[in-house]
Amino acid sequence: MPPVSPFLRTAASYAWRLLVVGGAVYAVFAVLGRFHEIGVALFLGLVVTALLSPLSRRLARLVPRSMAVAVSLIGSAVLLMGVLALVGEAVAGESARLVREFREGLVSIQEWLERPPFRLGSEALSDLQARLGEYVSSHRSTLLNTAVSGAGQVVQWLTVLALAVFSSVFFLHGGDRQWAWFCAQLPEAARERVGLAGRAAWRTFTGYTHGILLVAATNAILVGVALYFLGVPLALPLALLEFFAAFIPLIGSPVALAIATVVALASKGPFIAAVVLALIVVIGQIEGHLLHPLVMSWAVALHPLVVAVSVVAGAIAAGVVGAVVAVPLVSVTWSVRCALRAHAAAAPPLPPPEPPPEVRSGPDG
Description:
- The protein is mostly helical.
- The protein has two domains: about 35-140 and about 150-185, no CATH class; about 190-345.
- It has helices at about 5-35, 35-60, 65-115, 120-140, 140-185, 190-230, 235-245, 250-270, 270-300, 305-345.
């Protein structure tokens, strides 16, 4: 039997180790996938804690800690409900005008498509409308089942939201004590490194959360003001959509602004839609070259390619939730690695081992 080359032996040893590590990672993600709602709830609880902890700390100087946490949570909930009520009132007030403008806009779009350079005949557009109507009629039961399952998902997400609020109460009230208790349960040799990793992770997560909130608010204000002055209907709801979409870096804002472009095209015509399309480019440049570098300087410097790959990988793995969670997860992981590496480099070198006692031979030995 010919001898095995050293290269093949080394490659085989690395291959089976990689298989074991890959199997372990797959098992961990499979378990997490079974309980992903709990993970999402804890993530949302951490987001709420990162946003409200500065306010609760300031209030705790004036009132007891429990009251400070209650005021922070109730005040933020009232503010959020007020914004949603304002958006709902705006949608209800503009619904009739929006339906009329959409009908007129669809007619103008049809006439626009019939002219050069598209030259689509009215028969083709009528056939498209007929096919859409047939599809809706033939798949009515499927659409109804989807709506019913969507209602069940709403209940499920309300449960997740309730768990997130419940966990944020305890994180705000005594998160530092909970982390200290967790570190105290670890072996003494690992406590310092785990404590250092936890502090670095929380610092990065808090910085990223504050920064992405600034990006989302800035984008929403710019979009809302621009759509309002352009006369596009539903400017406030579209600005709110832009706010939530900005939490998905590099992808969310263009998708939200594309929806705004469709609304502008149907209600105001091609010229206003082209202006909104130009707005996508301008806001994209502001977000990519000004706001996101500021966010990453608060958290951790990630290359734009890493951000893009993380968002796409998260979306493939877990949909919208994965796209939202991917970048902070990668940022936290990288910051923990850098903190532990710096700690290991700054640690004093271990003393050299003592030489073994000499073994003496002879009649006295």
